[in-house]
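Methods — Computational structure assignment.
A single polypeptide chain was analysed. Its primary sequence is given first, followed by the predicted tertiary structure written as structure tokens.
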Amino acid sequence: MNINEIESDYQLYEIGKTYNRQLSPPFYQTIDINEAFYANDQWRGVKAKGQPALIMPVYKRVADHEIASILSSPIKAVFTIENFDSEADNAEELQNKVDILNHTVQNIWEKTKIDSLLRECLTDGFNSGDYAIYTFWDKNINTKQAYGKNPDGTDTQIVGDICNEVKDSSEIMFGNPNDKRVQTQPYILIIGRGIVADLVKEAKANGVSESDYNTITSDLDYLETAGDRGKIEIDKSLETGGKTLYIIKMWKKDGMVYYRKSTKFCNIIKEQAMNLTRYPLAFGNWIKRKNSYHGTAAGTALVPNQIVINQMYSQIAYHLRMTAFGKVIYDSSRIASYNNAIGSAIAVEGDITGAVQQLQAGQLNTNIFGFIGDLVSQTKDLNGANDTALGNANPNVASGTAIMANVTQNAIPLENPKQILYQFVEDFVLNLEDFIENKYKVPRQVGYMDEKVSKVGEINGKDYKDISLKLKVEVGASTIWSEITEINTILTLLAGQHITFLQALERMPDGYVMNKQGLIDEINKANLANQPPPQGQAVPPTGQGEAMPPTVPPTGQVPQGGQGEATPTANYDDMAKFVDSLSPEVQAKLKELPDKQYESAVMQLMDADKQGLLNPPQGGNQNG
């Protein structure tokens, strides 16, 4: 690459900045303002002049709610074979390869912490309107896997792996800014600021001459960096050399992606093929704008409301500070100095009437509280962040089903950002597959879990070049709200006696009952100990010839509120006569039982008596 190419890339960067500056609202300023408001720095540049600068963080509350709501449903991308013939001779082999590919993508997802990156992306999207993940190949990563042997007998290490980086909206420039599609761009610029020492080291590793890499020096080209703090950098020092701007330009030629990397005066990486067929960039908007790759930030509409809310509360606090307490006025011609100390005397010359007077505290128009409350409420409601959605509903009043229905209704305005995110994830995973297919040139081992069994597979990128794949992004139910519905359903079934307490406990989601498994084990142990004797076996006596009434009835005869089926209606006259026929000791034992167990125990004894399993009763009404 010659000096003209370097200048050309820098000129393209200037053209991109010019486009951004023509947008309305102002592109760079809007990002800085929204980012500051999200960080609760909401009085930036304002001189309060003694007025309290209160912050009521409605902006951040709404932003966090919307971001969490969008990501509350687990996202998973799954590859399948297009027009798959399950009867083909190689069907099992193909399916196994696709399964290994899905495991590999999942491993990359977890290893590079994509869930955290998506949260960071949505935060950027809320504040700037855009979010992006740039995927790149780090050739210095040691995978700690080997293939083959070196001439000296040592293992040949597999080096290099996939990395991902969240990029700010201001760091991405499209060659055609009126087209949102990434893969159709004539070129894409990735902008960054790097430490001079690191860039010099990279240039040396790529064979750049000393005269060229000595031109890499710190600059002040950071005014377009996102956020107020992005414009505060380390001082230039002998060790790092400060920071400077670099540009990565990517373009397509003959179906392949090429790139080069440069600073303003130095070629760090010469033009070379990336060995990829897709631009390694996933790009999304929070709110799409027609004929522009930049979107609109949701936070932009909240800033004016947040300013008014802060100002009104601050003015109320200032008013109360100045007028809440009454003031004393006195006649200085008769009182030289006024002493407000408790119990002290004040000398007055002449008549004391009118010498001292207490002024009443100032009155505050209470209508202002209604206005502020309505403003806060409307701001949250219009952004789907009302009290129920934010978790402020009273659980004693609102059922889980009602909460779920309300939250589902309030989530409707977020469907557009959700669908944009799912398309973003699909583009990102397609980029990962492109890397796997073209960068995994030797077999690599992949560990995964299959039905709770650890297994190891092998993946080779070339195996997928001739397989027609299709990708589907699967979205599960919201974890939080699906659990609320599940618990509510279980409790309803239990209250209606359609399931037992043990069945309800076994189906309760983890984390809601302390030591759930221990409680289940104790119940099972108690049930086993209280099982009635087998048919034909006498009930163990108490030592006095009486049968002890079991506290747990046999299967099928459980009192109301107990386990199993409902107890059949008893003949209470017969039961009373039978109880009277029992010994006083047994009657006393029965009376100690709770009401719900008494009837069941008596019926058990009556059933055992009919089968001849009881010793002859010793009650007072016994004949013979």
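Note: The radius of gyration is 38 Å.
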